[in-house]
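Re: your question from the hallway

Yes, I did run it. Sequences:
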Amino acid sequence: MEYKVAVIKGDCIGPEIVNEAMKIMDKVAEKFGHTFRYEQLLLGGASIDAYGVPLTEETLEKAKKSDGILMGSIGGDTTTSPWYKLPADKRPEAGLLAIRKGLGLFANMRPAVLYEELKGACPLKDSIIGDGFDFVVMRELTGGLYFGERKTVVEDGVLTAYDSLTYNENEIRRIAVKGFETAMKRRKKVTSVDKANVLDSSRLWRKVVEEVAKDYPEVTLEHMLVDNCAMQLVKDPTQFDVVLTENMFGDILSDEASMVTGSIGMLSSASLGEGKLGLYEPSHGSAPDIAGQNKANPIATILSAAMMLRYSFDLDKEADAIEAAVKEVLKQGYRTVDIMSEGHTLVGTKEMGDAIAACI
Ligand code: NAD
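Structure:
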């Protein structure tokens, strides 16, 4: 099969890590008989340097026409880079927000995987993590408290602030469908997280999630209150497969989930909209402190490419091959500097990419 991949290499370490992800995709293409047609697009700082704005209309249109978007991280050193002397709406991050909005990406998926070989980086006890864990947080991205009406007014002489948390049934249904579709490609369990004992928006959330669940009889659905979920993530993270939740709860829980894996250079992410198009990028930033030194860990970006194959192109076997190659290389003892520990072999960005490509 042939796929059109929009590639946004990004800033600082972005080009280094994306080059390695493309190396792995090329190996997959060769091995499984596919063609990935890359179109390079500029976003963030690189777009400011070339066009004076962090995202052009043309870039957005080209991204819309692709089958999937692979991105490195964007942005620079926020204290020294001239990009941060520009007004807020012209800075690199404004481009990222604009492309997410322009593509209608309403779901954010962040896997939290603890590999057995990297157990030492996890702050939890051995007795809790067992052989490691593997779950994803599916967070609603464009509704809820962060997008509701807000105001600060004086009432009876007292300063009073209001933030409103609003969801309609359609917004809940489309993210719930993403959660169940993802579970169907995994271990077929959804934990829907809400605060239905207090909030009306959560009671509607629970009702709509239960309706959607009827279309996925193979998937086990459980409901969990958000305060309990925050505890369960550190008490027994192995119980989760897909954690489905609204915007603010997801913001907090996905950071907690990243923290328990212990390693920023390993965490991939996807932002998804209607249909199959998605934007895939590492969870970390552009790491200006190590840019251009062949030090960055490319694994988060390589695993993001694997997610693109699985969720946008339905190439499950190919995605499995990439994930297995990453595990194999960790088993062989290769480590970039961020995950290095005694008794292992220190390698650079390119060498890590080569080692993973050799295992495909
Ligand atoms: P960062 O994630 O870039 O770096 C934090 C620390 O982690 C640094 O010490 C860095 O060297 C290290 N690190 C990050 N990724 C690594 C990797 N793959 N391998 C090895 N080490 C790695 O966060 P920051 O320093 O706060 O932000 C730097 C820039 O990135 C800023 O301009 C920020 O706005 C931007 N940013 C972009 C995104 C994105 O593109 N989605 C996300 C977060 C931050």
